[in-house]
Amino acid sequence: MKVAIAGLGGRGRDVYAKSALLHADKMEIVAVADIDPKKVALAAEEYHVPKEACFLSAEEMLKEEKLADAMIIATQDRQHVDQAIMALEKGYHLLLEKPISPDLNECRKLAEAARHSGCKIVVCHVLRYTPIYQKVKELLDSGVIGDVVSVMAAENVGWYHQAHSFVRGNWANSDETSPMILQKCCHDMDLYLWLTGKTCESITSFGDTYLFKEEKAPKGCAKRCFDGCKAREDCPFDAEKIYLDNKVFGYRKGNRIWPLDVLVPSGPTEEKILDVLKESRYGQCVYHCDNNVVDHQVVNLNMTDGTTMSFTMCGFTPEISRYARFMGTRGELRVEMKQTAEDCEISIHRFESDLPVENIDVASLAEDFTGHGGGDDRMVVEFLELISGEKEESSYVTSLERSLESHYCALAAEYSRTHGGRPVKIDEFAK
Ligand SMILES: NC(=O)c1ccc[n+]([C@@H]2O[C@H](COP(=O)([O-])OP(=O)(O)OC[C@H]3O[C@@H](n4cnc5c(N)ncnc54)[C@H](O)[C@@H]3O)[C@@H](O)[C@H]2O)c1
Predict the structure, then answer these.
(1) Which of 34, 47, 314, 365 is most deeply buried (CB count within 10 A of its CB)?
(2) Separation of alpha carbons 337 and 320, rounded Å
(3) Architecture of the 129-212+292-369+399-430 domain
């Protein structure tokens, strides 16, 4: 399939364009667009895109006659819908980054445009395509724990990830981007609805920004880490500590990819990282940023079949992971998705006392777990096979229609959070 990419950042260039190399038999990049000429030049060189097919915005690319079978839209959260509608009008199938939009009316507008277009839209809920959650789905569907009555789930954002993306970075301010519960957790909303096959009836939520604000700043701290900050030594959020010394993110610990490639897209070096930290948003003090998104939030979901879920998102966790307990009428299933397949866990605890706990060896489920637990690449392949007609739409493909449910839940949770925890009925809210 011929594919055009709009937005050549962390997702467009580093994930989707790279898929073209892995799947040269299925996908060819024929056009690219970004408002940053350096990113366009890099992608054009890496993927041999001719000059006349390089554009300085998605909008410019979309003025042309149809250039490809499909378009990947990987621009920022508030740009997706307008670009998607223009692309549908030109007849492109779409791989659309999540969130669709933080604006409920825009979500509805795209759903309407999609209904009339005849094109396919897949929204990038990568977790559905991961070996670990596909296994969980298989197990729950098999009835191994009976009917699921309650789900207790947590998204552990990781303290350094919170500081990078949601305090200093691109998704810090919901007026420019999306509320945290949509931006980060539309994945979770989608995941648990899909895994249990349930529909949410109503939602309540609470949450706030506890730490990352001026009044919590330690004594002597400067507006930027490198501007003579006197609190650096005792501050875990110090930019140099996070980007150079952190055991997961740190350049000095051997990391060369995300999030360092966000700081230096042309390839990080210690010198370049330090230069970026001295000038960019990533060197700001975490107590003096323009952030307003929450650093912790809880959501309760009441399902249409009378069962319940509770979900916690928290930025104050030592590592980045997702955890869930599915409590059923015959037993419990626990799953934890961590950064490496070896650390991931699925266990089944049946009520009959003579049955031992069953542990699933997650690492043996697949060979490749790179990119969101192996979800990124599988999603791209699924999308290509779907639009080329090679495969029928599988029950787990994250079509626009399916994705919208998660967006309604996340936006309803945000409405509840900002209205004192008021219960919100999903079908009324979605209308
Ligand atoms: N599916 C996932 O798991 C996942 C993970 C991370 C991010 N995302 C989503 O993917 C999207 C992109 O995230 P990212 O990390 O790549 O961000 P990014 O900021 O690195 O990339 C966005 C790119 O869009 C470019 N851009 C801005 N305006 C444009 C325009 N008019 N035309 C063309 N390009 C334009 C920017 O210059 C930038 O290079 C976001 O909506 C984000 O929420 C999804």
Answers:
(1) 34
(2) 9
(3) 2-Layer Sandwich (3.30)
